[in-house]
Amino acid sequence: MDAEFWVIQVFNGISYGALLFLLAGGLSLIFGVMRIVNLSHGSYFMLGGYVALTVIWTTDSWVLAIPVAALTVAVVGLVMERVFLRPLGFDPLRQVLLTVGFAFLFQQGALDIWGGDSLDISPPEFLTESVVIGGVYFPLYRAFMIGVALAIGVTIWLTMEKTRMGAMVRAAVDDSEMARGVGIDTSLVSMFIFALGAFLAALGGVIGGAFLGVYPGLDFEILPIAFAVVIIGGMGSLGGAAVGSLIVGLADNFGKALFPEVSYFTLYAPMVLILALKPTGLFGRE
Amino acid sequence: MLRRLTTELPRSFTLGAVALGIGLASGPAGAEELRIGFLAPMTGIFAQVGKDMSNGFQMYLDEVGNDFAGAKVVFILEDGQGKPPVNVRKAEKLIRQDKVHMFIGGLLASTGYALAPVSTRLKTVYIPSVAAADDLTQRQASKYPYLMRTGWTSSQPNHPFGEWACAQGYKKIVTIGADYAFGYEVVGGFQKAFEDCGGKVIQKIWPPLGTKDFGPFIPTIKDDADAIFTLMVGPMSLQFPKQLAASGNKKPVLGGGTSYDEFVLPSMGDESIGHYSALQYSAALETPKNEAFVKKYREKYGKVPSYYSETNYTTAQMIHEIMKKTGGKWPGGEKFVQMLAGLKLDTVRGPVHFDELRNPVQNVYIRKVEKKKMFGFPDAELWNVVVKTYPDVGQFWKYGKDKFLKQPVYSRDFPPCKYCE
Amino acid sequence: MSERTKILIVVAALIVLLIVMQFASSFVILLVTQALVFAILAMSLDILLGYTGLPSLGQAAYLGVGAYLTAILATKYGFGLGSSFWAVIVLGILLGAVTAAIFGLFAIRASGVYFLMITLALGQCVWGLAYRWNSLTGGDNGINMPGRPNFGIDLAHDMTFFYVVFGFFVAALAALYLLVKSPFGRSLVGIRESELRMRILGYNTWLHKYIAFIIAGAFGGLAGVLWAFLNGLVSPEDVILTTSVDALLMVVLGGPGTLVGGAIGAGVVVFLREYLSTLVEWWQYALGGVYVLTILYLPGGLMGIPERIRQRRALSAPAEQAKAVSVSQ
Questions:
Q1: Which residues in chain A are closer than 8 Å to B44, comparing Cβ atoms?
Q2: Phi and psi (nearest 5°) for B76?
Q3: Does the N-terminal peptide bond of residue B415 adopt cis geometry, omega within 30 degrees of 0?
């Protein structure tokens, strides 16, 4: 295995990590603000891909499909939070089971609406090319995924740091009771964060659709990996989600390439260790 | 939908009975009724394949009005979800609750291995029309007297394919195949035949079943290979050629039949043009029988039939043939298997007869993905154009039954990768 | 209702089940046996969730180790197919306990939502090994069992096997009932209500939770052994996240902290998954619907319904009396 192998594997790992960041960033924020273990997060990812396909079939526009899919699913998330999760109050177990119930409903619903085909989202032609640098092929689409994740990451980071909403969110993550005490509407913050989380997951679904495909069962396949990211990176921390995505992306890539027999174990075992040593994850706040 | 062919009355009756915890055995079904259980994934990753399977069978039933020589066919479809344990539980239900005469289907090779013991345990005919696990009709055949295969063994088309690869002048090949029984048997069959005619498999890569991101695997493919042999299943088939092309691959690509099956072909991009594969069927087979079948199927279900459709259509036809001989009477499981094993039939895929271990002997087609117009359809589409036919290929290829059965079943470690470093 | 009446009702229900099963078709026998195996798993989870307040998202792991142990012993060593069946039962319980003892070291430190997450991760570790460690577990193919044990009594006969599973179910129910009624069980409930208070009172709460975790693992392992023999196939599908989540639903649906509730929940979920799915295409809507409706409208589970009715009556009774008085005046 020469340098070329390592370069391309690192690139692949990072680009996979970029996709994971879109998927798991929202999950981490939701967890940080609301302490909800959202098992329907994988469904948002899948629904994002399906809605995007419908948009592409009707308008033939990939560019349009991205915002439409993400916004549609954000609304779904918003309704779920307002109508079902909010009334439950803080009860981790019941929240988990409620989100699982919705995941089953979404799965069957998607099968009824879009059928069982294994579908694929085709990005514009130029993104399917590859760039050759020093004899190594770099698929442009993977570079595009990294670009999107960077842009989204920076945008959210700026929002969190510079805007009033961001300040409210940060306060709610740090100590939601204190935040309520100083007059922050934490209910509004929760709604915003839940919708944002669904938005990001769906965006990931559209971007990832060209890369993983869109098919029934994608939801539960992607879900445990999202949790790995959140757990390793730390719950409720955007920076943590970024680092967690990179670690999982690289670990998964190299695990599969180098130790195929125990590849999933190499993914989940570090997760257990980190949780045991620091229950809030590497970058989570106590 | 699922159960449109069973009548409403018995259903509510059995539901009530189960609710009470009392199942009233309805006694053996009457001679005029042929009860057929069908297992296919209706949900999950393989839902579309499952639909192709049941559509094929259903189309034949519709053609004959559910009438097999006077016997009324009751077709009971169950969703196996593509998961072996679920298939086992549904098969138990079909046999115990619905008292079926036989059950058909099961998609994955692993499902075939899981279902065969059920047929022996509950003494019910099992026809794996798709599940291609080699050993069901090879080393373990004697364990499963009620099993009758109408499809193929995984390695069957890949023996001639290996020889064909030699004839193309390939010397070194890298294989990349889904990491489970079916993958081992397809790759193993190809490797065995290819190395027996002088080729060398220099690397074997096993991505897990269901892999969509081939990023970790593609860069490990060795540079000095002349060609790549792939074996993909379900959604994997769609992603691999694309990602391989994006990685700058220029090597010729060969593949197991499912890598380019018609169920994914319409969704594939032009990057798969020129790839070769081997199977006992192609929708582009230019015979009058097949042309009629493709046209009719497409009209009915809006898509080109895949081998999953064809093999189940043909299975239904074969069962019908046997029922014709018995005058619509169910001959009993053992007799049925015996009669079916003696059948010779001209089918959509070509002439088929069976060997002594109850596996079909049939044509194997080497197929090349091309974009063209066929059968008078208006658009240029991707088709598996047949470039060579190997007639009368059995599961033991040229090795002979006894010699072949002495070697172990193809696995991750067999044949050993002698030329790997 | 007094404790005695409750026990009598349960015993009567079990006897009715035994009688009804004499008339059941072979498919119903199979379904009920499945439900009983899952009932053992659900009751083991109830010790954690209902009595100790620890919601585990990884209970399928213990079912998995028990089942894989059974399959590996049977296929590689031909062990467990005769009277050694009983040894496999003991080994399965032990392996479940040992696995839980290891996992507990990681998990017990955490509480609430972090406990959910770490048990999820531990469950996924077991799944990952089952799915990819081909040489041991057969990977995606899983392992086919060679058959059920025969030690003079042939368990291949479905009704016989039902009696065996029924026996284990009753034994597990009795053992767990004695456990929760013991001083140890009462301190678990104390921890559920207020861990801080128990700690101040001088209890080693970590150790109590750790032991409860191990006991739950042991019964999970037992369920795994029976599961392997029942299905004749052990596959990574048995260990997936959904199995763990289903076990949670069984407990919450039946009523946490009641033991019997878990068994009833197991019956309902098995009916939905295994029987309704053979009748209708939309069974997943029903399953999802049960999840959502249970959470929204049945906080105490099915076992909590009588209590809720009584409360409602108690509330409305004085009002009616008042009405009666006003009318008479």
A1: 116, 216-217
A2: -115, 115
A3: yes
How is residue C152 written in tokens? 């003079």
Categorise residue C72: left if φ over 0, alpha if ψ from -120 to 50, beta otherwise: alpha
What is the model's pLDDT at position B25? 39
Q: Of the ranges A27-36, A101-110, A218-227, B313-322, which is most confident?
A: B313-322
With a cut of 60, say whether residue B27 has pLDDT above it.
no
Q: Please, which pLDDT band fits residue C20 given cuts at 50, 70 and 90?
A: very high
Beta partners for residue B104, in sequence order: B38, B127
Chain B interface with A: residues with Cβ < 8 Å: 42-48, 50-51, 179, 206-208, 210-213, 215-217, 219-220, 234-235, 238-239, 242-243, 246-248, 264, 267, 269
Residue from the list C125, C127, C295 with its beta carbon closest to the beta carbon of A101: C295
Specify the CATH number for the domain of residue C273. 1.10.3470
Residues 6+ apart with CB under 8 A from B311: B56, B129, B130, B150, B151, B152, B281, B349
Backbone angles phi, psi at A222, to 5 degrees: -85, -20
User: Which residues make beta-bridge pairs with B75?
Assistant: B36
ipTM: 0.81
**Cα(B254)–Cα(B158) distance, rounded to whole angstroms?**
11
Count of positions (residues) in chain C? 329
Is residue C279 situated within a structural domain?
yes
The residue count for chain B = 421
Q: Provide φ and ψ at B391, rounded to 5°.
A: -80, 155
**Is residue C10 in some structural domain?**
no
Which contiguous run of DSSP H or E holds residue C15? helix C3-21
C160, with CB counted inside 10 A (0-12, 13-18, 19+), is middle
- Classify residue C19: in a domain, yes or no: no
Burial label, C182 (beta-carbon count in 10 A; 0-12, 13-18, 19+): exposed
> Residue C95 falls within a domain, yes or no?
yes
- C123 is written with which tokens? 């469950």
Give how far Cα B109 sits from Cα of A245, B93, B147, C142, Å. 35, 21, 14, 12
The number of distinct structural domains making up chain C is 1
CA distance B111 to chain C (A): 8
**Residue range B7-21, pLDDT digits in tens:** 333 433 344 444 443
Range of the domain at C180: 29-298
Residue in A117, A128, A263 closest to B48 by CB = A117
| DSSP structure class, residue C182 | S
Determine the distance in angstroms separating the CA of A99 from the nearest CA of chain C, rounded to an integer.
8
* Distance (Å, whole) CA A114 – CA C7: 51
Structural domains in chain B, CATH included, are 8-153+306-361 (3.40.50.2300), 158-286+367-406 (3.40.50.2300)
pLDDT, one tens digit per residue, over B263-311 is 888 888 888 999 999 999 999 999 999 999 999 999 999 999 999 999 9
Q: Inspect the interface and report whether the beta carbons of A12 and B217 lie closer than 8 Å.
A: no
In SS3 terms, chain B reads as CCCCCCCHHHHHHHHHHHHHCCCCCCCCCCCCEEEEEEEECCCCCCHHHHHHHHHHHHHHHHHCCCEECCEEEEEEEEECCCCHHHHHHHHHHHHHCCCCCEEEECCCHHHHHHHHHHHHHCCCEEECCCCCCHHHHCCCHHHCCCECCCCCCCCCCHHHHHHHHHHCCCCEEEEEECCCHHHHHHHHHHHHHHHHCCCEEEEEECCCCCCCCCCCCHHHCCCCCCEEEEECCCCHHHHHHHHHHHCCCCCCEEEEHHHHCCCCHHHCCHHHCCCEEEECCCCCCCCHHHHHHHHHHHHHHCCCCCHHHHHHHHHHHHHHHHHHHHCCCCCCHHHHHHHHHCCCEEECCEEEEECCCCCEEEEEEEEEEEEECCCCCCCCEEEEEEEEEEEEECCCCCCCHHHHHHCCCCCCCCCCCCCCC
